[in-house]
Design goal:
It is a single chain. With 65 residues, the protein is mostly helical. The protein has one domain. It is built from two helices and no strands.
Length: 65
Amino acid sequence: MLLAVGVTVTAVSGLALVGALASYFLDATPAFLPVLYGLSLFGLPLGFTLMVLFVVVSAVRRSRT
């Protein structure tokens, strides 16, 4: 579950980053541009943190058995 959430958050954030970059390259200023920045700014680190947390939790569980 933790891994799936981390991958999903990272994927959505990556798409938001691509959308924000594409809007700049196309000289467009959509109204939802701050939302794309927010998703990219907070979502990418959060997603990677969740994936690393999954690896750590899995390692701890394996070491106990």
